[in-house]
Structure formats: C-alpha cells, structure tokens
Design goal:
With about 170 residues, the chain is an all-alpha fold.
Length: about 170
C-alpha cells in the first residue's frame, strides 16, 4: 500500500471514531473512555509515522514541501495540546464534550489541509517513492503499536480518570 493510501485510511478511521465519540452520551463513561483511548492511540501512532517517515520525504522534495511539513507539525502540536486537555477533564462533563468538539474540528482541519495540499504535492514530487514509503510506514506503525501495547501506553491517563470517578 502506498503512503498516501495508508494515511488516508488512518484519516478516515479517526474521523469516524471522532464522530462516534461526539455522539456518545455522557452516561456511558466506560465507552467514552475506551473510544477516546483508541482515538488518542491512533493519533499518536499516525503522528509518529508522518513526522518520522512521510514528512521528511515531503520536505526533501522542495521548498513547498518544507512549508507544508512545517504547517502540519504546528497542527500536530495543537492537537497534542487538545489531547492533553481531553485527558484532564471528567468524561461525563460538558467540558469533555466541548473538548471532543474542538479536537474533532482541529483534526478534520488538519486532514483537509493534508489531503488537499500536501498529498497532491507528494503524489507529484514523490511518485516513484510512495510505495516504498508506504511499506516503511506500515512496518513502523505495526512496531509502534506493539511497543505501546507492551508498555501499557494506550490511553492510561483516561483510564485513571474513570477509575477515580467511581
């Protein structure tokens, strides 16, 4: 699978999960927690494969690529800050719902930027390299997921909050 297809699949999966989380009733904190943990883990893995494999290739393709990468890294930092806020709020509160809404808006904006600007640029400039990049990204993604699972890093802060609110 080429790099752009892999990233778009991740985008589609995260967008759907964010829609589900936004619709989930406050009276379901365990389900909210589980879905929020999954979303956070997906975003963490996705950011790493982009920042460590895909973005360097795009940046190396030229000045426009460098600008797109810089913008995307800034958006990643913003999403990371929103995730930290999400981890700090009560799962049954309206603050949680508001933070999920802000996270969704920012993630959707980032996805739109990548898919409308960076991906067409990458298709043009990295045409012969996208399959190899996709293979590298897929293998690295699987490695990161195994490490996170092994180390218990899959949404632990939210898990603590739910346990603490009982």
């Amino acid at each position: 699978m080429d790099a752009i297809t892999l990233l778009k699949q991740d985008h589609d999966r995260v967008k759907e999960m964010l829609r589900q989380l936004e619709q989930m009733p406050a009276g379901q904190p365990e389900q909210r927690r589980a879905l929020a943990e999954t979303i956070i883990a997906e975003l963490m893995v996705h950011e790493r494969i982009e920042e460590e494999i895909f973005y360097p290739a795009v940046a190396a393709a030229g000045e426009t690529g460098e600008e797109e990468v810089e913008h995307s890294i800034e958006e990643h930092a913003l999403v990371d800050n929103i995730i930290a806020q999400l981890e700090a709020v009560d799962l049954a509160s309206s603050d949680f719902e508001g933070t999920v809404r802000v996270l969704k808006e920012n993630v959707f904006h980032h996805i739109k930027d990548e898919e409308e600007k960076m991906f067409p640029y990458a298709k043009k400039k990295l045409a012969g390299k996208l399959d190899k990049l996709g293979t590298q990204m897929s293998a690295y993604k699987a490695q990161i997921e195994r490490e996170m699972e092994r180390d218990g890093l899959m949404g632990a802060p939210l898990r603590k909050e739910v346990q603490g609110s009982r």
